[in-house]
Each structure stands twice: as structure tokens, then as C-alpha cells.
Design brief:
CATH class of the largest domain: Alpha Beta
Shape: globular
Distance between the termini: 45 Å
GO molecular function, one term: formylglycine-generating oxidase activity
Protein name: Sulfatase-modifying factor enzyme-like domain-containing protein
Pfam families: FGE-sulfatase
InterPro entries: CTDL_fold (IPR016187), Sulfatase_Mod_Factor_Kinase (IPR051043), SUMF_dom (IPR005532), SUMF_sf (IPR042095)
Organism: Nitrospira japonica
CATH superfamily of the largest domain: paralog of FGE (formylglycine-generating enzyme)
CATH topology of the largest domain: paralog of FGE (formylglycine-generating enzyme)
Order of helices and strands: EEEHEEEEHHHEEEEE
Strand order of the largest sheet: 10-9-8-11
């Protein structure tokens, strides 16, 4: 064959045309597999958060000391999963990679043996599990700053929906464990959406973020694209509160923490990806 089109049976939607030159000088149009996109690996809506300033933390005397002082922080644009990673999505990752299943919080046997939990947020994941999932999906864990901006917008609101107190229609919090009835299906409380339309950022499952936890970080952190303290250790930041958290722990500014090997039936995660440059990819 000295030229022309080499045909394949692969779907065009997942292929790329590449022109190569052989010794005869004739170009061959061949097909090469494209790597899967984030949307193909992890088909979940993502919300674009525009670049710009927002108010992070709380004025001294409001909230807790590790939220002080309040600062105006600039972030580059990014996209965040609209909902927390579910059991169904996490199972696809396990099947594709051979990564271990998380412990089953609903009883004995494998998590896959429990019916009707596919749309509940996955919990009992360590920080390493969350990081591995996001990497597989060609995304990453959010920074604390990204998580907080997605939750509160630019006006410093106390909760994702505003400053009004939470209700059972806005947040799943301050409850006792009730097996499969404890966690809510992701996205099922639209009255609790953030100003950008991101869901379940108060209660349901706490969410791992990428930062190491430092209670004094806000006092010396950069005001542009902060990525957490440089120190190493075992404690990572967690945001958003869970089904069991009191009101003070589900505010947009509340900071939680846990060892990166921590597994609890109240901790899950969601992923983000950068929309401009590579400064935040790690």
C-alpha cells in the first residue's frame, strides 16, 4: 500500500487521524487511539468556577481560630464535580484499576452486596484512595481554597445557600447512623446548592482536600492560588461536615482534619481540574 486511507473498525469518536510519511514519500492516514478524557472515565457534571477573588476564612472573633483571619484570595479558574463521588462511580474505578474496595459501612460482606446504594456518596475512603481516584479520572483533589470558593462564592456567606440557618431540605447533618438511610443520594437537596450550583457542600459526607492541615496557615498563606502549607506530616484537611456533624462544622469556612489513612463512614470526596495553566496540578 503506497498511499490512501487505511481503514479500521474502531469508532471515530475515540480515534485521532495522524498523518505519517513512509519511505515512498506518500502520506498514510492512520488511526490511533486517543486517551480517554475525564468525562469518559468519570461521567459526572462539572461546574466551572471563574477566576477571581473571594473571601476566605472568617474575621477574628467569628467562627474558630483556625479560620482566622479572613482574607481576599485570588484563584485561577477551575472546574469541580457537581456532586460527591458515589459508590457506583467508585466501583467503576475499582474494576478498572484493581484498587481495593473501601470497607462496607452498612454490614458484613463486600460493598457490592448491598442494594440501592449506588447514588450514595462513597465513604470509608482514605486520603490516598481519594487521590488515586482523582488521578485515574485525570483530575485531582481540590485545594482548601478551591473547595471554599466553590461552596461560598465571593460574598463570604456562612453556608452554601446563604446566611439562613440550615434545614433538613438544605443539609443532611446532626443525625445518628441509620445504615442505608443515613447518607442521602447525591444532589437530592437542591435547596442547599452553592451560588455556583455545586451540591452537598454542607453535610452528607465530609470531603478530603489536597492540603496538609495547619491551624495557623491562614496567617501567612499566599493570597494567590494557595495550595496549603509546605510542611509534611500525617494530617490532611477535610471540609464540609458530614451527616453526623453539628451546625458549626457544616459552615463554608469550617476546617476539619484527619490522618491521611483515616477511614470513617462520614468521609468521602469530590474532584477538580484546572482550567488555565498547570500551576495547581500536582
Amino acid at each position: 500500500m503506497t498511499g490512501g486511507l487505511r481503514r479500521t473498525n474502531a469508532r471515530w469518536s475515540s480515534m485521532a487521524a495522524i498523518v505519517v510519511t513512509v519511505c515512498t514519500g506518500a502520506p498514510w492516514l492512520v488511526m490511533a487511539e486517543l486517551p480517554a478524557t475525564p468525562q469518559e472515565l468519570d461521567p459526572v457534571p462539572m461546574i466551572s468556577i471563574p477566576a477571581g477573588q473571594f473571601l476566605m476564612g472568617n474575621p477574628e472573633g467569628t467562627g474558630r481560630a483556625d479560620e482566622w483571619p479572613q482574607r481576599s484570595v485570588y484563584l485561577d479558574a477551575f472546574a469541580i464535580d457537581q456532586v460527591e463521588v458515589t459508590n457506583e462511580r467508585y466501583r467503576a474505578f475499582v474494576v478498572a484499576t484493581g484498587h481495593r474496595d473501601p470497607p462496607n459501612p452498612y454490614g458484613t460482606g463486600p460493598l457490592t452486596s448491598i442494594q440501592g446504594i449506588g447514588e450514595l456518596p462513597v465513604v470509608q475512603t482514605t486520603w490516598y484512595d481519594a487521590k488515586a481516584y482523582c488521578g485515574w479520572a485525570k483530575k485531582r483533589l481540590p485545594t482548601e481554597a478551591e473547595w471554599e470558593k466553590a461552596a461560598r462564592g465571593t460574598d463570604g456567606r456562612r453556608f452554601p445557600w446563604g446566611d439562613e440557618p440550615p434545614t433538613s431540605k438544605r443539609a443532611n447533618f446532626d443525625r445518628e447512623w441509620a445504615d442505608e438511610r443515613t447518607l442521602h443520594p447525591v444532589g437530592s437537596l437542591p435547596e442547599g446548592d452553592s451560588p455556583y450550583g455545586v451540591k452537598d457542600l454542607a453535610g452528607n459526607a465530609r470531603e478530603w482536600v489536597s492540603d496538609w492541615y495547619d491551624p495557623d496557615y491562614y496567617r501567612h498563606a499566599p493570597t494567590k492560588n494557595p495550595q496549603g502549607p509546605d510542611k509534611k506530616g500525617v494530617v490532611r484537611a477535610i471540609r464540609g461536615g458530614s451527616w453526623h456533624s453539628p451546625l458549626a462544622d457544616i459552615t463554608t469556612s469550617a476546617r476539619g482534619r484527619g490522618g491521611f489513612a483515616l477511614q470513617t463512614h462520614g468521609t468521602g470526596f469530590r474532584c477538580v481540574r484546572s482550567l488555565e495553566g498547570d500551576a495547581l496540578k500536582r
